[in-house]
């Protein structure tokens, strides 16, 4: 029996040593220390032993059992620790790995331009006004000194719904609407961005739908020099401090006198190059002193009030500022084009 116990002990200890995980160790524990295990069996057979042998074998069986238990417990701690370490190693995060890029959208270049123009004029005391894209003939033409048979209506080929209703051809009707709201009392100082529509064939510089930004300042004693000062401020804020402007005589039915405003070429600093067609100047907007008849039609006393107005194309501003060669880029929504306007 003594040999049997020693044999069992060696066998069990060898298995403990060989156990590679908690589960197989648990099997060894149950097999050797459990109630149905071989040691219990040995103890059951003790009845056949002599009175002297019984306590000796009993003691030995207990010692063997204790020895196995000590080893199993110690190995269990080791295996559990190893399991935790393995888990930690597997789940560890390498904080030095580069993160996954988060791709964000970008603002449309026209949105950027409109916001920049608004910012420049808000800084000069203007506020933003809006009007409808579907406009009545009266505000789009008549209130701007363009009666029904006026030849200048041909300058702006229009999309009509009915004789009286059309898609606005410019943002100037917002001038008339805003003045009306002020009921003959100045100052009126607004900037009006919005979509406009014309029956044009689309090409690199024409689009049947585009954006304009209108400006209007009506008050007592507003003069041409105010117009020039405000536009110069704007040109420097939008294009750069080194830019100059010049006014050239022109014609619009709603302003008198009317001017075309050029900004000095940013490419050659006014010396003349391919971009400015050797002139040193680039045309950017139309402007003038609000025609007395336009003031009167919208309820302002033209002997007391005067004003200036201007209108510019947002696409043209964007094309000049970002060196874009085709107006259709703004409307075909190629992400390769749009993504170039992401903020750094
Ligand atoms: N409405 C004009 C156009 O679409 C632009 C314009 C010119 C607006 C002179 C104005 C202005 O307010 O004073 O061509």
UniProtKB/TrEMBL annotation:
Protein's recorded name: Phenylalanine--tRNA ligase alpha subunit
Superkingdom of this protein's organism: Bacteria
Gene Ontology CC annotations of this record: cytoplasm
Domain Aminoacyl-transfer RNA synthetases class-II family profile: 113-340
GO biological process: phenylalanyl-tRNA aminoacylation
Location relative to the cell: Cytoplasm
EC number of the protein: 6.1.1.20
Cofactor note: Binds 2 magnesium ions per tetramer.
Species, as recorded: Halalkalibacter suaedae
Taxon lineage: Bacteria, Bacillati, Bacillota, Bacilli, Bacillales
Cofactor: Mg(2+)
Gene expressing this chain: pheS
PROSITE patterns associated with the record: AA_TRNA_LIGASE_II
Predominant subcellular localization, coarse grouping: cytoplasm
Positions with a binding annotation for Mg(2+): 256
């Amino acid at each position: 029996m003594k040999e049997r116990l020693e044999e069992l002990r060696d066998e069990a200890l060898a298995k403990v040593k060989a156990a590679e995980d908690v589960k197989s160790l648990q099997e060894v524990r149950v097999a050797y220390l459990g109630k149905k295990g071989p040691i219990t069996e040995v103890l059951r057979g003790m009845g056949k032993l002599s009175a002297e042998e019984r306590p000796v074998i009993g003691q030995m069986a207990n010692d063997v059992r204790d020895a196995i238990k000590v080893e199993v417990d110690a190995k269990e701690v080791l295996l559990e620790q190893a399991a935790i370490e393995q888990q930690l190693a597997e789940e560890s995060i390498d904080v030095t790995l580069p993160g996954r890029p988060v791709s964000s959208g970008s603002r449309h270049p026209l949105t950027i331009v409109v916001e920049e123009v608004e910012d420049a004029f808000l800084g000069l005391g203007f506020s933003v006004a809006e009007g409808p894209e579907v406009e009545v003939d009266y505000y789009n033409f008549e209130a701007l000194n363009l009666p029904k048979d006026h030849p200048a209506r041909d300058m702006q080929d229009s999309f009509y719904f009915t004789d009286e209703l059309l898609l606005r051809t410019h943002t100037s009707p917002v001038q008339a609407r805003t003045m009306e709201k002020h009921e003959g009392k100045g100052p009126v100082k607004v900037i009006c961005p919005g979509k406009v529509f014309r029956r044009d064939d689309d090409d690199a510089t024409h689009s049947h739908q585009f954006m304009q930004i209108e400006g209007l300042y009506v008050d007592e004693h507003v003069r041409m020099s105010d117009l020039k000062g405000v536009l110069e401020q704007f040109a420097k804020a939008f294009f750069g401090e080194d830019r100059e402007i010049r006014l050239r005589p022109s014609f619009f039915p709603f302003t008198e006198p009317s001017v075309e405003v050029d900004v000095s070429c940013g490419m050659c600093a006014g010396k003349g190059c391919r971009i400015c067609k050797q002139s040193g100047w680039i045309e950017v907007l139309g402007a003038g002193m609000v025609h007395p008849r336009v003031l009167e039609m919208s309820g302002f006393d033209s002997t007391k009030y005067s004003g200036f107005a201007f209108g510019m194309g947002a696409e043209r501003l964007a094309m000049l500022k970002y060196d874009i060669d085709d107006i259709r880029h703004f409307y075909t929504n190629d992400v390769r084009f749009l993504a170039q306007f992401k903020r750094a």
